[in-house]
Amino acid sequence: MPETEHVPRNALFGKYEIGRLLGCGAFAKVYHARDVRTGISVAVKVINKKRLTNPNLTTSVKREISIMSRLNHHFIVKLYEVLATKTKIYVVMEFVKGGELFAKVAKARFSEELSRKYFQQLITAVRYCHNHGIFHRDLKPENLLLDENGNLKVSDFGLSAVTDQIRADGMLHTLCGTPAYVAPEVLSKKGYDGAKVDVWSCGVILFVLHVGYLPFNDPNLMVMYKKIYKGEFRCPKWMSSDTKRFLSRLLDTNPETRITIDEILKDPWFREGYNEPTFQEEDGAQVKSLKLNAFDLISFSSGLDLSPLFDESHDYGERFVLRDAPEKLVERVKEVSKGERLRVKKGKEWGIELEGKDGNLGVAVEVYRLTEELVVVEARRKGSDAQWYKEFWNNKMRPALAKT
User: Fold this and answer.
1) What amino acid positions are annotated as catalytic residues?
2) What are the E-state strand segments in 85-141?
3) Model confidence, pTM
4) Tens of pLDDT, residues 107-143
């Protein structure tokens, strides 16, 4: 972008003027920045691709970006934009001026009224996530920020899960989270309900905010886990009986009888001073009943294809959404291939690879189910001539697939 009097020479992509360092981790640094077009402050997370040596880290970053792209809520940190070069990924987010909630409570415990205020805002945000098929799984004061008005903002969705990660038994199975905030059923490794795990963590957070220390703590990790598993914690004598009752329902070791989000919203302790949010929640095209895979939906959208951010060689030929049955689409692919005398190799589920007899032509077609009615068709050329692929796809395969 040419330099102008309005754009500083060092502005990132001609858009953001990078300022002071806010924090850093193993593979990323976060900077304060200014949007040169609007003057608004933003936070830019700079991710070094070379340091994403572990595939799990790459997956975590992809998941966080895709999930945050889908969420738009007053009490959740907003993602504005994702930019990338060959070596770095730049995640541009809302700048939350007040810092971590943890820093505030570390100085002094909160009153019951203030603790309730933050808990109400937390539950409002968590409920929104759950309604969109997203479970945070690492809720703690360090991941809760405060804006300039003293309102809470949930951040760090790197360990979040989406509904498509639930196994056939209806449970999630990945062992994750911060030890002191993890629910007992996660430790049992028998599977857990993501929503109930988040409720437990919210209970631990409420205890920490109001009391000033952890309900379950011990220098020996295994001893602490035993306390969590048995639900061994004590409320201070000065705590009100209503707060003790409410905490006992949140920190119920039995997930089946633990209070749910809907029950929390009806509880007298929670409802005291509670005002239903009046801000508009914008969900875009996603609808809760569809139970879409947040990562795939964002990846499939034209606005944010995450694959090229991590793999410069990744080359998708075509990707589009159809309202049809995957089985029918696969049959149409076979029909076209037969007419072109291409060899058909079956891939996993609804995947097909097409090859010319001499092996010089190659096309891979994958069909993914998004909902009961919608599917995504993805095609890419594999070693074949670009001009042949373009003519084959545009003139033969795509028209055949698009037939209703």
Assistant:
1) 138
2) 88-94, 134-135
3) 0.67
4) 999 999 999 999 999 999 999 999 988 888 889 988 8
